[in-house]
């Protein structure tokens, strides 16, 4: 089976690696995916080519995105099936273009756009231009009139069990995967690390930075041990300070207490706030709202503290670390695992091969 894949995010490619274990030996990838999956085909582009963040950076690459759309449509002619993963701003228009060409290959959307957070009207377009919607959140199924089914959450394939308690050694710092995030967030994390004295401090660095000069990206990292495996670092730690994104959910599913600290570029932040009306940005908090029958991202319940923009200070981070109710967090973490139920890889593979 020739599968046109579009996986632009590092997290999407991790989930894709779990998926290939169940797709069979006759699978061939074409499209956009990580070079580490080159045993299944030669990628048109790497996810690194799409590593932009913020409205301004996206605007600068519009011509590149248009070119990539055209090339993906050309590749779709030879595909048996099409798999789009996350990255809604790129994939919704791509699905529309592919469908307008009346190709035979069905379009599957796995890791659906977060229409419950903003632009809920996009749900109609996704439903119209895709043949099957593979939801990784139970509450997403209700947002579509048909075609959607809950397949499980991919992180439960990668984290099949949680820790037995919150006891661990040392503190983990995860200031993000993009250089702009790191420049804005890591200085506050550095101040926290210095205040922690002789406690072991681990800096989690994205694997694609391994060959680069880390000091040119982070500055002085002499207070830290460096780790390139987020799950290993979180599994061993007693606490974590995390930028945002998938890592927050990883920490929750492992059972490691954490605080979310995030600071966006000022213009991007205010543009985003004009569109997204969420009280929480952390995935664990959003999902915890849903399992408590509250509006996702706007409920009264919370698993962890979030310190955003001007509230992201070393003083606030330290106070959160010292006052955090670790046992309550662990109870909620087990509830979250129960809510998500099971991993998605086997179910998605069966659907694609069906």
TrEMBL record:
Keywords: Glycosyltransferase, Lipid A biosynthesis, Lipid biosynthesis, Lipid metabolism, Transferase. One of its GO terms (cellular component) is membrane. The keyword Metal-binding does not apply. The keyword Lipid biosynthesis applies. Its EC number is 2.4.1.182. Pfam families: LpxB (PF02684). It catalyses: a lipid X + a UDP-2-N,3-O-bis[(3R)-3-hydroxyacyl]-alpha-D-glucosamine = a lipid A disaccharide + UDP + H(+). One of its GO terms (molecular function) is phospholipid binding. One of its GO terms (biological process) is lipid A biosynthetic process. InterPro entries: Glyco_trans_19. Condensation of UDP-2,3-diacylglucosamine and 2,3-diacylglucosamine-1-phosphate to form lipid A disaccharide, a precursor of lipid A, a phosphorylated glycolipid that anchors the lipopolysaccharide to the outer membrane of the cell. PANTHER family: LIPID-A-DISACCHARIDE SYNTHASE (PTHR30372), LIPID-A-DISACCHARIDE SYNTHASE, MITOCHONDRIAL-RELATED (PTHR30372:SF4). This is Lipid-A-disaccharide synthase. It comes from Helicobacter fennelliae MRY12-0050. The lineage of its organism: Bacteria, Pseudomonadati, Campylobacterota, Epsilonproteobacteria, Campylobacterales.
């Amino acid at each position: 089976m020739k599968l046109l894949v579009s996986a632009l995010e590092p997290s999407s490619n991790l989930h894709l690696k779990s998926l290939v274990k169940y797709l069979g030996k006759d699978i061939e990838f074409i499209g956009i995916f990580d070079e580490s999956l080159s045993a299944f085909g030669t990628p048109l582009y790497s996810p690194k080519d799409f590593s932009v963040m913020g409205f301004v950076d996206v605007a600068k690459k519009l011509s590149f995105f248009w070119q990539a759309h055209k090339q993906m449509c050309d590749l779709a002619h030879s595909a048996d099936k099409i798999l789009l993963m996350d990255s809604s701003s790129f994939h919704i228009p791509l699905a529309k273009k592919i469908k307008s060409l009346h190709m035979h290959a069905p379009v599957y959307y796995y890791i659906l756009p977060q229409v419950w957070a903003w632009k809920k009207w996009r749900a109609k377009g996704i439903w119209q231009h895709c043949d099957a919607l593979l939801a990784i959140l139970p509450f997403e199924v209700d947002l579509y009139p048909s075609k959607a089914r809950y397949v499980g959450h991919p992180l439960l394939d990668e984290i099949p069990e949680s820790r037995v308690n919150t006891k661990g050694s040392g503190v983990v710092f995860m200031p993000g995967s993009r250089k702009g995030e790191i420049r804005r967030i890591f200085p506050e994390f550095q101040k926290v690390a210095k205040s922690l004295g002789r406690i072991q401090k681990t800096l989690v660095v994205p694997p694609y930075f391994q060959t680069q000069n880390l000091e040119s990206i982070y500055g002085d990292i002499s207070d830290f041990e460096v780790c390139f495996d987020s799950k290993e670092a979180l599994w061993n730690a007693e606490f974590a300070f995390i930028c945002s994104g998938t890592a927050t959910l990883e920490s929750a599913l492992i059972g490691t207490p954490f605080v979310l600290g995030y600071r966006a570029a000022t213009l991007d932040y205010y543009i985003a706030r004009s569109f997204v009306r969420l009280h929480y940005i952390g995935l664990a908090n959003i999902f915890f709202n849903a399992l408590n029958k509250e509006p996702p991202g706007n409920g009264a319940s919370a698993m962890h503290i979030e310190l955003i923009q001007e509230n992201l200070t070393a003083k606030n981070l330290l106070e959160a670390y010292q006052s955090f109710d670790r046992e309550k967090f662990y109870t909620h973490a087990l509830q979250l695992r129960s809510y998500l139920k099971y991993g998605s890889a086997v179910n998605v593979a069966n659907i694609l091969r069906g």
